[in-house]
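Example 3.2
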Amino acid sequence: MNLLEKTKMIQAKVGAAQDGIYGNATADKLLALLGLSPLPAESGSLVKGTGVNIKRVFLHCSATREGQDIDAATIKKWHLAQGWKDIGYHFVIRIDGTIETGRAEHVVGSHVAGFNTGSIGVVYVGGLDAQGKPKDTRTEAQKASMARLCRALDAAYKQPRFMGHRDASPDKDGDGVVEKHEWLKDCPCFDVASWWTGVK
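Structure, written as tokens:
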């Protein structure tokens, strides 16, 4: 039995998603089974708070299909293939809730054209349904990690504005609101403003 099979066997026994990835979600299930507390949230320790003037945090989706797990290294390969210098995002939230670091916080990202300076880019893995159509595919683990990470960013950068990629679309009718018919893309496939109000 290889490591992947062993991990899936453990996940089946503890009631975790059987994806073969031993991340925070699996660890928490195992600890709960043993009567121990879940692992402490580590997102605060991931955030450096570099002193750079960060005014916005943009939330994105990776535009991959529901259940397809990828990591920061994969996204970096995609971005390098497009001629970029590095991964465009600063943080990646995988399906099991694991938060991976991407581009260093003090380095300007490449995630929203015209808004990269003074912003942090956070991407969750997913955003498309099985047919490739936009959908909020965040798992409960991703939602929990996203909330922890965003709270840490909020504290580190003195309450930046939290936005979805689609919120940076031009206000074509000039009414002061970027509406659905004006979105350049659906990313991140959920309303960031209302989500953030509910979790901050």
